[in-house]
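Chapter review. Work through the record for hydroxymethylpyrimidine kinase before attempting the end-of-chapter questions.
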Amino acid sequence: MNSLPCVLTIAGSDSGGGAGIQADLKTISMLGCYGASAITAITAQNTVTVSGIEPVTPEFVALQIETVCADINVKAAKTGMLFSASIIKSVATALAGKSFPLVVDPVCVATSGARLLKEDAVEAMKRLFPLADLITPNIPEAELFADMEIKTREDVFKAIEILLETGPKAVLIKGGHFDSVAATDWLGIKGQKPIPFMQQRVKTKNTHGTGCTLSAAIASGLAKGQNLVTAILGAQKYLNLALRAGFNLGEGGGPPNHLAPMLITGMKESVLSDLHECGLRLTKMDGLYKLIPESRMNVAAALPCASEIDDVAAFTGRIGCTRKGEIIVGGSPAFGASAHMAKVVLCARKHNPEINCAVGIKYDDQILAAVAKCGFVEAWFDLADKPDNLNREIGSHLEWGTCEALAHHDDVTKVDVVCDPGDIGVEPFVRILGKDFQDLEEKLKRLIGFLKN
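Structure tokens for hydroxymethylpyrimidine kinase:
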């Protein structure tokens, strides 16, 4: 087997496992690199507090770095918590002759609020910046090192200019602290206009170690030979997935789920298998043919942390029926098989994360009456109201319509169906939302039961 590129992390140990060396090594491993480490301090912490910090002597920190580099072919390195001026100076000396890219994450304060950088270390940290290919401060850190307040985009640009003057090749100011719908990080390179890197914001309290994770992921990309922009994009995508797949660990803010890519692989196999079994049950569902529209139906099922079309599975050939009412499932389950249904599920999940699947059925007076008799909660949209500037991407009208219907509903968590009367050349549909396959199939059976009566 080919050797893995080595990434050296120089940071503190987090006994809670969510940040620092522990987060770095998990990230580096998940992104296909080999992690080596030089520990700068030992902390006693959990999701609520940092109750103690014991720094390693500057000489021993330097010895760790020198020993690793003397034997192992380091392809990239990153720094995290360095704690004191003396440790920073020893790290700068040890890395002075480096031949690999360096990412400096100028960690100052833990997510819990504990200070991780001594007062006298702020100026010393700037001594490390000229060695950095990239520094990755968040807004409070950028304010500290640029000695200015950052409230606007123009402030970000000014801070980038000031920080670039301290010597790094590039600056990435992370925008997670801004109150905005999207989280925007700004990359500044000397002589170039700042470049925005936008990611959908994830609503979660589990953000402990996000800075460590992002910088370790960027270093991993650089170690694999990626250019800076590609490495940042890949790191953002990994972190966003890890945040969406996060879970509560303790009483406070937990970390992102660093194992998310590996876990998603297993989840994909499970979703495809469950969708296949659902298809088999639908072929045996008596009376289902009454619900199949002219353009046939499809069932879509999303991964627990779905954010894009390729995270939603559907049948590649749709579901139809013969004149005798025999149900035929065309094709096989695959992710990204139906952009239309994927967008319905993704939009529904934005308003109600418990929704995991959906199916499109026929729209007519009898079915609408059955929907009402079942007591299903309805949400409606009308394509006649769609904006003129709506893009022509496949399924964009459904994305707009589903979000429109749910955004204006009084209690979106109770919506069972999204109704769409269609438009000129566009077939009307009733789309049933389900928490899981069992919920979806039960709703289909209830509708069929009312239609029979």
